[in-house]
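Appendix B. Raw example, untouched.
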Amino acid sequence: MEDFNYDLPRNAIAQVPLPERSGSRLMVVRRSTRGFEHSTIRDLGRWLRPGDLLVANNSQVLPARLEATREGTGGRVELLLLRQEQDNRWIALAKPARRLREGTRLVVSPRNPSDQAEVVIEIEAVGTEGKVRLRLPDDGDFDLGVYGQLPLPPYIVAPLHEPARYQTVYAKAGGSAAAPTAGLHFTPTLIEDLGAAGIGWAEITLHVGLDTFQPVAVERIAEHTIHREWFEVPEEAAEAIAATKQAGGRIIAVGTTTARTLEFVAQQGDAGQPRRTAGMADLFITPGYRWRLVDGLLTNFHLPRSTLLMMVSALAGVETIRAAYAEAVAEGYRFYSFGDAMVILPTER
């Protein structure tokens, strides 16, 4: 794990988004090389080719953070809904979780007291690492938009005045506990301009869980168990990917969640002919992985000791990414969810 650690000045962590989504800086990294170029997201098309296909994750972040109190004692509990199991049952992260037991009842108030009455959530089971299974009220009695808040990462301490800035402009399918942040840079105008330049656009869905962004606790990568996340590759996206590959174009994943989904699907069959599919993805991509479908990757800068940093290192090379991150720090790039981006491209032949 020490191979994926680095020092980052606290002031390099972006606390707020830039006024314009497409105003972020862009580091250009070519696979297997140590040279870097500096650009902007607005100029992304300059680094791509007509016939390339950008594939993005259209999952929408749920207002999944709930502030609750224990019925009877009034003790405060924060809940983060991670994954819907069935109907109104969810797996959630509870803080603090040590005093929660099966049958514990938690009271949740609406953000605006005039909207609706308080509701009661019941803990059905207590797991490890602060995770619980809970039962929400029936759908007719509970609206996440009324009771929940967007769950910002813990390293963002500044208030978010525009909640829409933690959603991509193309978000459609609600289900994520965290944003697929590489997509935050895109605007409808940028997508249209890329299309006019012959660069295609397709969308898949992967509901991002909190574990995606958490540092790995073990020292040896092989000891880490990857989480599972629900995904869907619709027929339209599968056809666009297959057509791009057949025509000699490149698949550029917008974000690590998209890259993991595409590679998981590629392992299920012919990488050149992906099919409409859905399920639970649990692919752990580390250096030495043989990429089957993804040719390039647009991504933000990731936390030390994280599975995401391992993934980008698997694509560009450990030494290349280490040098790129050192360069980004020296050049004053903004890091993490609201920060700048890099695009990893295939080395030209």
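End of appendix B.
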